[in-house]
Amino acid sequence: MKKDVVVLNCGSSSVKFAIIDATSGEAQMTGLAESLGNQDASVTVKYKGEKQKIALSENAMHAEALEEISRIIAKTGVEPVAVGHRVVHGGEKFKQAVQIDESVEQAIQECAAMAPLHNPANLTGILTAKTAYPSLPHVAVFDTAFFQSMPQHAYLYALPRALYRDHAIRRYGFHGTSHKYILDTTASELNKSVDETTIISAHLGNGCSVTAVVKGKAVDTSLGFTPLEGLVMGTRCGDIDPSLPTVLQQKLGKNAEEINKLLNTESGLLGISELSNDCRALEEAAEQGHEGAIIALEIFCYRLAKYIGGYMVATPDLDAIVFTGGIGENSSLIREKTLGYFSHLGVKLDADKNLDKRFGAQGEITAADSPIACWVIPTNEEWVIAQQAAQFA
Ligand code: ADP
Questions:
Q1: pLDDT of residue 45
Q2: Residue nearest atom 22 of ligand 1, based on CA coordinates
Q3: Same-domain status, 134 and 260
Q4: Mean pLDDT of the region 5-10
Q5: Spacing, Cα 389 to ligand 1 middle (Å)
Q6: 105 in the same domain as 221
Q7: What is the number of structural domains in the chain?
Q8: Which residue of 21, 109, 226, 352 has the fewest CB atoms within a 10 Å radius of its CB?
């Protein structure tokens, strides 16, 4: 039976929205309200193959955008059964999706200290969407919830324990809905139940993370207290020597906030290449011999391989290594370079299959006799949010 869910992802100046059938995953409509708070605030909608851009009033904010979005949805005749909200940080409180009431709103607010750029915007989205859809269940789906199964030895930092007790400083993980989708889809591709499936999934987009899942439960992940830890990302540095921020403050005469910005927005692929944060652009430049692009891609793949290799200690009876996200789904080069580090373990890529798996194609990319199977599975975070929200309809 069809169960249409409105899926919302509210940022500080944007609202990404979709109507997803929770049963089939089909997206009936997708759209984006952007430049909220600016002169050129607008909503762009894709529906039945047609794209339409609607101007909002000058400096329009979330309330006007959501009013317009609900008007657009109403015109289609679709009757949604629930609204699913992406919420970035659920702390330790939320281990799964929940129907939103005042206490949930308050808890999301309390977690805002750990995700100051995201949770307040997510909450604004929730409050305004409740006005637009007062009679539907509103459900919060947390990026962090999937990782609440991690054992203490994976989530505690080697810092004084009091920092965990008193300030909740620990590793949380992000991209949970994507890793959950990859787990469910891999299980179904391998004809196994989710709780029998063990994978290492690599979500490689502008943000990047690797997750180890044992028998359907996340046991480790590379993003930590914030989405800065772990892999090299588009503009984020990932792992560095923890003393560097202090050294950089002294050397550059910058304050803590400026150094934080440098690590989050001027580093990663962009920082190393001195060219771009965009993997595709770097691949093109590397082909032309651009030295910065070549070394940026090299570091990206080596760090990724180190994480995947590290997670092999946590994943006995590994069923598959799975690539997803814009880079994971499209870059046969990054997959080839990364998996090249495992050739001495026998991992054997099938070059044709690897080249085929681009632009939305799904399937295995390793040879039949490879001891570890590797897959490409395009992610679908909106579908996970729709499925979880529909449970409350
Ligand atoms: P976000 O994390 O913002 O959702 P995406 O998952 O869309 O980002 O991933 C964006 C990244 O995917 C960019 O680095 C982009 O260059 C890369 N990408 C997209 N298509 C290709 C391609 N054909 N080859 C290499 N990289 C690609």
A1: 96
A2: 330
A3: no
A4: 96
A5: 27
A6: no
A7: 2
A8: 352
